[in-house]
Amino acid sequence: MNRIPFTDRLLEYSKKEITSFHALPLNSGNGLYKSKLKEHYECLFGKEYLANEVTYGNGWIDNPIFPTDVLKESQEITAKTFHTDLTMYITSGTTVANQIAIFSTINHGDRVLVDRHTHQSIHFSLSLTGAKIQYSTFVSEEESSGRQFINYDSLIHEFQSAFSKGHPFKVVILNASTYEGVINNSMSIIEKILDISEDVTFIVDEAWIAYAAFNDETKKYSILSSINEKRSSYPKLRLICTQSPHKSLNALRQTSYLHVIGDSKLITSVSDIKYKIHTTSPSYPMLSSLELAREDMVINGNDRIQESLNLVKLFRSHMEKYSNLSINSKIPKGDFWALDPLRLSVNFKNTNLDVNDVKIIFQKHDLYISRFTQDSFLLNFHLGINENNIDRLKNALKELNNTHRSYITNSTSNEYVIPYPPGVPVLVPGEIITRKIIKKINMLENCKTKIMKIKG
Ligand SMILES: Cc1ncc(COP(=O)(O)O)c(C=O)c1O
Predict the structure, then answer these.
(1) What is the model's pLDDT at position 1?
(2) Looking at the 3D structure of the chain, how many domains does it have?
């Protein structure tokens, strides 16, 4: 096990009875003296969390802006874990980590080649730089899952062509994994571009796959796992990689790792921009969770991720039982793409159910799913999903598989549908059955209202 110096120091100081004349009335709930809301705060955060909400700088815990002590050591251990030259803890999400990456590498008028299907944080940050942006847009889409597959041959061709014409791209921005679970082989793209020119900086957004580096089966998906080996072939490699540990590791929300690989010029530039953009009041519990998430993975990552992969394998064979549900697994031929083994897209087209019907069934089973298309939903088997959770999911899927919608959107009704009370038809023969009407009938049925259905 590595040291967790920041967390150890934070816990040491949170136990002391210190009176702070700096800021943060919420520390230990002290500012809530006589507050009617004290109980609410304690229910939300717990006494321990409130005790750990501190802001002790140099000589106590560490200076959060220019760390020299335990925060510096913690970031260095994390950098070593990910094989980077510098890793910084960001407490405003990968949204801001991406912004830092862009502002530290791109100036007004620079030419930048961008995978068009990157997160909004990249687009908005780029729009502020005044750079000359070329989007690589050629993409194929698997309609049911909504998965998009960037054509990397065309991206590499664009890089080659600009280089040959004498106006090369200074920065290339790649998205390593999409929300829908398409993992791009970023390292193979980077190598192909470096074979054309090494005079380029890469920004790679690994927001979704911070977990990948910690398991034998999945480490091939993270560029950082093979970075040492690649650096011996490409010693000038300059790369910034951002990750959202809160998406796949045990870290608090809004945390991000900003990893830098490269020369001292790049490191200085990223550090300077981080200083200018990042909050000057990072949350100490969030910083601590970035340290703990790394160490949790170092100790348990391989096994825990393997358990999740095994759960997915079992779940995949369970899915064969359902005649009306299937797993979307179409992917174009080629070496550039893979599907995240922990994220499955399930197709419910054959049930004939509307996406709203599906949402209602999941909600009834207390299952939260965030990504739907017209006929699919996305399941993320992240750490923490266990067999009991999957049993609950199976109950919902069984119901989904066996439920058939009696009304099809935009078809024509051949009956009266009359709820009682009040005895006023919600549908008459010849009327177009809109989604709104179906929703109303579903709602009435859910409320166990008596409904007469009489052929017209
Ligand atoms: C690919 C990608 N990059 C960056 C982000 C932003 O990350 P965060 O929510 O940590 O700010 C997201 C958010 O979903 C994302 O999908």
Answers:
(1) 78
(2) 3
Phi-psi bin for 46: left (phi > 0), alpha (psi -120 to 50), beta? left
Q: What is the best residue among 99, 121, 380 to mutate for testing ligand 1's pocket, by most ligand atoms within 8 Å of CB?
A: 121
**Which of 241, 244, 256, 279 maximizes ligand 1 atoms within 8 Å of its Cβ, making it the mutation to test the pocket?**
244
For ligand 1, atom 14: residue with the closest CA: 179
Q: What is the CATH number of the domain that holds 425?
A: 3.90.105.10
Q: Is residue 20 part of a domain?
A: no
Atom of ligand 1 nearest to the CA of 179: 16
- For residue 138, the model assigns a pLDDT of 72
Q: 207 CA distance to ligand 1 centroid (A)?
A: 6
Residue 36 placed within a domain: no
Range of the domain at 248: 63-296
Assess if residue 12 is contained within a domain.
Answer: no
pLDDT value of position 211: 98
**Residues 315 and 291 occupy one common structural domain:** no
Quick check: bond before 421 cis, omega within 30? Answer: yes
Distance between Cα 265 and ligand 1 center (Å)? 27
Q: Closest Cα partner for 251 from 368, 343, 378, 384?
A: 384
Ligand 1: lining residues by beta carbon, under 6 Å: 93-95, 119, 121, 175, 179, 205, 207-208, 244, 256
The whole-angstrom separation of Cα 23 and Cα 288 is 20
In terms of domains, do 131 and 89 share one? yes
- The residue whose C-alpha atom lies closest to atom 7 belonging to ligand 1 is 94
Assess whether 268 and 122 both reside in one domain.
yes
128 and 217 together in one domain: yes
Q: Is 41 among the domain residues?
A: no
Instruction: Mark the ranges of the chain whose per-residue pLDDT is less than 50.
Output: none
Q: Please state whether the peptide bond connecting residue 422 to the residue before it is cis, i.e. omega within 30 degrees of 0.
A: yes
358 Cα: distance to centroid of ligand 1 (angstroms): 26
86-125 pLDDT, tens per residue?
999 999 999 999 999 999 999 999 999 999 989 999 999 9
Q: How far is the CA of 15 from the centre of ligand 1 (A)?
A: 35
Relative orientation angle of helices 284-319 and 5-14, to the nearest 10 degrees: 120
* Same domain for 378 and 284: no
Q: Percentage of the chain surpassing pLDDT 90? A: 88
Residue nearest to atom 16 of ligand 1 (CA): 179
Across 180-215, b (16+ Cβ under 10 Å) vs e yields bbbbbbbbebbeebbebeeebbbbbbbbbbbbbbbb
pLDDT recorded at residue 443: 80
Is 334 found in the same domain as 268?
Answer: no
